[in-house]
Amino acid sequence: MSGLSLAAHLAVADHRHPVVVVDDGSRPVEDGAWASWSAGAGMLDAAAHRWFDKIRVHAGGRTTVLPLGRYRYRVVRGRDLAEVVHRYTDPLPGFTRQRGHVDGFTDGGLVVDGRFVRARWVFDSVVGPGETPPLDAQLVFRGWRVSSERGVFDAEIPTLFDFRTSQTHGASFVYVLPEDTHHALVEHTAFVAPGAAQDETAQREALAEYLAEVAGATGYEVEREEHAVLPLCAAQPPRAHGHVLTIGARGGMLKASTGFAYQRVQRDSAAIAWSMSRHGHPFDLPRAPGRFPLLDSVLLDVVTREPVQLERAFAALFRFRTAEPALRFLDEETTLSQEMRLFAGMPAATYLAAARRRLTSSAGGASRATTSR
Ligand SMILES: Cc1cc2nc3c(=O)[nH]c(=O)nc-3n(C[C@H](O)[C@H](O)[C@H](O)COP(=O)(O)OP(=O)(O)OC[C@H]3O[C@@H](n4cnc5c(N)ncnc54)[C@H](O)[C@@H]3O)c2cc1C
């Protein structure tokens, strides 16, 4: 997803240099689909298959339908993303695709299927930096593409989170992305501590229970199952190594408190392409204020210790007339005073204790690093 997105942005901003997109086909883009929210137009918007302007949330014992304000929620399917990207890149003779397995990087290039390929710059979404910051949590999710005999889904409103599911196996909620009234992706999502044991059976039971008791689906068929464990790391990993820049999930684009990456990848791709066209290198990239990674790591610390706190936090963030304040915060575009307003009502002592733990552990890490030098 990030390689294709960047290729399209480079094709528009800086197509003086040849670009090769290398993929070994181990995870075909056609199998993927990404939901995300955004405000304003994006270069690859034509790839969106569905747009929504409301979401449903169920937290703190009540269901609310929230307009998205200046945001819209959209779903991009992998095949549509590839097609739209190729509309930008195919007319450019310097832009090509190569099927091949990247083995690693060397001075002046990379190794694909055992053979050296010269490259001035390498954008790496598959190998990653040698050293990564420690994980804060994992996002474990299992989704069923369900076909229901009865039309039980609301075709126009996705459910971003519904906490009517057991919290025994981690801070958990169910996400519902409808296709029409009979078909939806119903996903069980849990934030768990790094390395925590996963219980596939419990996750499937939770999905079946949600479908029967909350959604009211009877006689449904599970057409497809997807499952993933996303490593969540609030701190930004080092991205630049000589001529290699890490991109995508491995480049820190997964937002640690949500597991969403699509929209951050779009912003990052635009910034890389701008840096390339302006400076001839890809390293002049904006950085979000440091408090956002800290807030993410504090939230993950709290919810992995005390799972019920996730529902309270989301209920507080999404308690306004629209979802806009919460989405702006998750996009790391809020001011401090807006954040203070958002956090009012959350248990301050719990979060302050977690903040102290995080700050102490990062100070310990820094002094250890200093000692070892
Ligand atoms: C099941 C699932 C659902 C998700 N849903 C969403 C969502 O709805 N919204 C959202 O914002 N985020 C979502 N994410 C998180 C994130 O957006 C995705 O993981 C996203 O695909 C990350 O993009 P990427 O470019 O880093 O990696 P990928 O999209 O996985 O791309 C990596 C590519 O590299 C290829 N490859 C792998 N190893 C090699 C190698 N050694 N050599 C050559 N090629 C190689 C693969 O074939 C693949 O095409 C989801 C993640 C998962 C796992």
TrEMBL record:
InterPro entries: FAD/NAD-bd_sf. It comes from the Bacteria. This is Lycopene beta-cyclase. It comes from Lentzea albida.
